[in-house]
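@channel sequence for tomorrow's demo:
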Amino acid sequence: MHIVHTEADGGKGGQPLRIINESSGMIQRGHQVTILCPETAPLHALAREAGLTVVTMPLKRKNVKNLQLLRQWLKQNRHAIDVINSHNSADTWLVALANLTLSNPVPLVRTRHASGVPRNNWTTRWLFRKACAHIVTTGEALRHQMADIGVPMAQSTSVPSGVDTQRFHPADKQQSRAHCGLSQDDFWLGVVSHLRPNKGHSVLLRALAKIDNPRIKLAIVGEGPHKATLEQEIVELGLQQRVLMAGHRSDPERWFPAFDIALSPSHDMEGVPQGVLQSLASRVATIATDAGGTADAVIDGQTGLLIAQRDESALHEAIIKLHDDAMLRETLAQQGYDYLCAHFTRECMLEAMESVFSAAAAQRNRS
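structure tokens (generated this afternoon):
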């Protein structure tokens, strides 16, 4: 198949990484992949760095000029394309409207990465139910949101972003700490994510400040617009000696095994956070909030501890609970790892997406 991905602008978080990971995997399976996105989208540079074929296309705004440019490209190439996978609202609308004006339009699959509730009006219902051959969500909770606006369950599939278990895997804790520059004898909490307000770092800092144990420390791995605010909060809470702001790291797979507990304190609109899946793949005990589709992977008391969003008391209690019970940490880490390997690997994702794309392409052939 020739699969074309479109993206208006998914920022620097998990969305572009999902597109790149999935595209690379599809190429390894013998498919052709092309990515259409604006030059200003982070995906543009990231995909080219990954060796993927990228076509610069202005998709960030829904306007006549962008529609005409996309329509022209699709008209010239549509017979060589089997399926289009869109990832944001603007590019989905542009593809859907361009398809309306073309004979033999290319089937459109929409992937919803965020858990924001879609508008329930006739235009949105037309877009998802009629213009899209299929809807993919990155978590079951997002899939049920689509059902709430009338999308049949048979027209949607939950396909969480799969983890590359060749990259993220269990490793020796002492060696990992030596690599990351973390003290060997302290109890390390870790969070790996983009630094945005809705990722919940501030809630985590307040929970940590309530723990009167200087040996319990926190590593925050990532960059983003919330960095300066977090640095100020660390000073205000008196946590300078207990929190490491590690910045962006190109080797997060080396950091997860260094943690005693990995955390996802998010209250973001998302599917299953990449950091959650990566921590499970690294066989690290995990505490996460019930944001988006996180509960698909973190089953409370079985594969990790699942708590309410924005609840610093619950987060504080969960940290203390795992700190005080090494056997529970080990049990959750192993069960989380086993569950991840059975349901959330890169191969699981590729198998599911290949099935969705093949079915969508077959609809075109029948029409």
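heads up for whoever presents: The longest strand covers residues 32-37.
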